[in-house]
Write a structure and sequence with these properties.
With 424 residues, the protein is an alpha/beta fold. Helices cover 16% and strands 27% of the residues. The strands form 6 sheets. Strands 1, 4, 5, 6, 8, 9, 10, 11 and 12 form a 9-stranded mixed sheet that branches. The chain has a 7-stranded parallel sheet with strand order 15-18-21-24-27-30-32, with no helix packed on it. It has a 7-stranded parallel sheet with strand order 16-19-22-25-28-31-33. A hairpin with a 3-residue loop joins strand 2 and strand 3. It is elongated, with a radius of gyration of 23 Å.
Length: 424
């Protein structure tokens, strides 16, 4: 019989629709971040750095890129004979087959997987946040308080508290009440969506609540445990934590990596972030190239000028091209004499010569202003932009475009050029 003190269940099935074209063909946790990583690398690295060596990764939406990235878990030292990392997609059952319909429903459908490790505790994580956290300290807090459920919380400014699930606690951090996105918050302790459950408590709650449609932790499981008199405690976390759920927050989090003293440091020796790395040659900088305050991935060739940007692996930036305040992802090729300002360019994009991105006035995006905003130009993966095109702010391009797609070689600000067959 295999026994593990604590196993982790990592929810990585989210579509991340507010990231627009970046997640049209891949799950949000698989999106590239920081030049060489993917978003899921952060919770996975936290697990191995915290001594949690058994992780179930629950996938659903567009899982191919995520599955191939995780593989058998070698980069995170999670290729174990007992435990390690296991990808858990929804599967065909004898009676009925169903998608995961809510966060807790996904966990419920994998009771058998958890049962096989006879854990004392189950750690529930989300696969789409950027942070470093020692889950072992949270487990110690859970044990010290004899808790049934511990919820990681983060103090947020009172004026922002209405955007979160808020925990109300007594002097000993025991949770006495909670409110989902309250209009007038009674506390500023926001739930981070990170939970430690005693296994028996979790199992009972999931089985009792199984028939609930779209079974969710915040809406159903936590309130159920509270009603049944379970001991719920709030574990306060004060480190860096970023939900990169929108294009602007994703752009901001990347830009914060290149601050002179970054708030989120990728270079700490004692808390490494692990990832699956391709075998790449070193970076190449031509004699005329200029690079200031930027991250440049391996295998990248710079012939132009790069300022305040995060450049992925295997990228080419052509002669006399200027890239500012931008994120350029892996294997993208940018031609000569281009100017890119505040652009997010996805993987394997081809940009011709004399292309300008991010020019003119910031006009509201006509199709999805809640996604494409803050003056950012977004280019979806494997898109092609031909020579001599100028693109305005808050515009989005997705697909293989030709000169005929642009009137007078121009895509005005706020416009969306998404070719047939591509989804936004």
């Amino acid at each position: 019989m295999v026994k593990k003190e604590m196993i982790a269940m990592l929810l990585a099935g989210g579509q991340g629709s507010r990231l627009g074209v970046l997640t049209s063909k891949m799950a949000k946790p698989a999106v590239a971040f920081g030049g060489k990583y993917r978003i899921i690398d952060f919770p996975l690295s936290n697990c191995i750095n915290s001594g949690v060596d058994t992780v179930g990764v629950l996938t659903q939406y567009q899982p191919l890129r995520l599955n191939s990235h995780i593989g058998i878990g070698i980069p995170w030292d999670l290729d174990r004979n007992i435990g390690g990392v296991t990808v858990l997609p929804p599967y065909e059952k004898s009676s009925n087959s169903e998608w995961y319909t809510g966060t807790a429903n996904a966990i419920y459908q994998n009771l058998e997987y958890m049962e096989s490790y006879h854990p004392d505790y189950v750690l529930i994580l989300s696969g789409d946040h950027i942070y470093k956290m020692d889950y072992e300290l949270m487990l110690d807090f859970h044990k010290d308080n004899n808790a049934d459920v511990t919820i990681a919380v983060m103090p947020v400014p009172m004026e922002e508290a209405g955007r979160f699930g808020i925990m109300i606690t007594d002097g000993k951090r025991r949770i006495t009440d909670f409110e989902e996105k309250p209009e007038t918050p009674r506390s500023n302790l926001a739930s981070m969506g990170i939970y430690i459950f005693n296994w028996k408590t979790l199992r009972k709650a999931l089985i009792e609540m199984a028939e609930q449609p779209a079974l969710d932790f915040g809406k159903h499981v936590i309130p159920y445990c509270h009603r049944k008199g379970a001991f719920l405690y709030a574990y306060e976390f004060n480190g860096y934590w970023k939900d990169v759920g929108t294009l602007h927050s994703y752009w901001e989090a990347n830009m914060e990596l290149i601050d002179i003293v970054p708030e989120f440091n990728l270079y700490e020796e004692y808390w490494k972030i692990y990832t699956k790395s391709e075998i790449q040659p070193p970076q190449y900088f031509s004699r005329d190239s200029v690079v200031e305050r930027s991250i440049i991935g391996e295998g990248t060739d710079i012939y132009g000028k790069v300022y305040n940007s995060v450049i992925g692996c295997g990228v080419t930036i052509g002669k006399d091209t200027v890239v500012r305040d931008s994120i350029i992802m892996n294997q993208t090729q940018i031609g000569n004499n281009c100017e890119l300002y505040k652009a997010i360019v996805d993987e394997e994009v081809r940009i011709g010569n004399y292309v300008k991105l991010g020019f003119g006035e910031a006009v509201e995006n006509e199709m999805a202003p809640h996604i494409y905003n803050h003056g950012i130009v977004t280019v979806g993966e494997r898109s092609v932009i031909p020579n001599g095109i100028t693109v305005g702010k808050n515009a989005v391009i997705f697909g293989v475009t030709t000169g005929l797609d642009y009137e007078n070689s121009y895509l005005p600000g706020g416009k969306s050029l998404i070719k047939a067959g591509e989804r936004q």
